[in-house]
């Protein structure tokens, strides 16, 4: 204790200077918008850099698992190619016309939360690479989330594990659809609600994105039906869906932009406005 007191007395001028310097910096940042914005930008850049370095270390130790995933994905793609007659004969893939409506970018997850009620991810790409809000985020296993905000070099994503981020989903090979939501309980499951009782479904059926979505292409995998309930208030199905994705272990993702999103919004809004006259 005496040594601590002696240290404080001996360095009192230095400590007082550092204290006054810190107070002056805080007051300057709080009272000047320019300094405050520069501080926030610097903090965001530092956070993004830190997340990148941490992610690089984690990725280094996970190279074997990542290589195995890539090998599995290549095998799946080869199987698809080998079973397409036009691909075998011509050596070219015929791209469906619908794909011309979407652009696809690649990014890497450098931060990921999954244990909160409202979870977000951070990507190592931003507006400089063409990423902006309301773009779909997927990977080879299915839906991940929706881009929320961007800076020049980073983007945040609203995770599918978010209690206030509904998206359109449907039963695969069926026109019955509902809303994908999350009850905030289990990171391995989401819920498909508002499905009419006329729908034919069973445990194990696949759930995919629906055609009503402005953001996601149709038929992107989400998960499989695990349990089926009836909502007594709405008399509709509530379906517990086991996610295909392991949302606690995300690496590379694809960011998809629907180039006709705005056009679809305008025409549907015009129709709805006309019906209310």
From TrEMBL:
Residues 109-257 form the Rod shape-determining protein MreC beta-barrel core domain. Keywords: Cell shape. The keyword Chloroplast does not apply. It holds the Pfam family MreC. The keyword Secreted does not apply. InterPro entries: Cell/Rod_1, Cell/Rod_MreC_2, MreC, MreC_beta-barrel_core. PANTHER family: CELL SHAPE-DETERMINING PROTEIN MREC. Belongs to the MreC family. This is Cell shape-determining protein MreC.
């Amino acid at each position: 204790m005496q040594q601590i007191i002696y240290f404080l007395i001996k360095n009192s001028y230095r400590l007082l200077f550092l204290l006054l310097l810190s107070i002056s910096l805080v007051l300057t940042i709080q009272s000047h918008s320019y300094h405050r914005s520069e501080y926030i930008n610097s903090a965001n850049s530092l956070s993004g850099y830190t997340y990148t370095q941490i992610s690089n270390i984690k990725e280094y130790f996970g190279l074997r698992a990542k290589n195995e995933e890539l090998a599995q994905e290549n095998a799946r793609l080869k199987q698809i190619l080998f079973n397409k007659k036009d691909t075998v004969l011509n050596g070219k893939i015929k791209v469906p016309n619908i794909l011309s409506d979407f652009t696809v970018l690649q990014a890497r997850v450098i931060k990921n939360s999954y244990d909160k009620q409202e979870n977000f991810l951070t990507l190592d790409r931003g507006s400089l690479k063409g990423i902006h809000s309301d773009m779909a985020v997927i990977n080879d296993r299915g839906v991940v989330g929706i881009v929320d905000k961007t800076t020049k070099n980073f983007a945040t994503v609203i995770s599918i594990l978010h209690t206030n981020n509904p998206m359109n989903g449907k039963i695969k090979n069926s026109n019955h659809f509902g809303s994908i939501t999350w009850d905030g309980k289990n990171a391995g499951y989401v819920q498909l609600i508002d499905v009419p009782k006329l729908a034919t479904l069973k445990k194990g059926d696949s759930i995919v994105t629906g055609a009503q979505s402005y953001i996601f292409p149709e038929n992107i995998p989400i998960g499989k039906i695990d349990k089926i309930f009836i909502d007594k208030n709405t008399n509709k199905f509530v379906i517990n869906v086991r996610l295909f994705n392991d949302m606690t272990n995300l690496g590379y993702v694809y960011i998809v932009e629907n180039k006709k999103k705005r056009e679809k919004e305008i025409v549907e809004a015009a129709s709805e406005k006309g019906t209310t006259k």
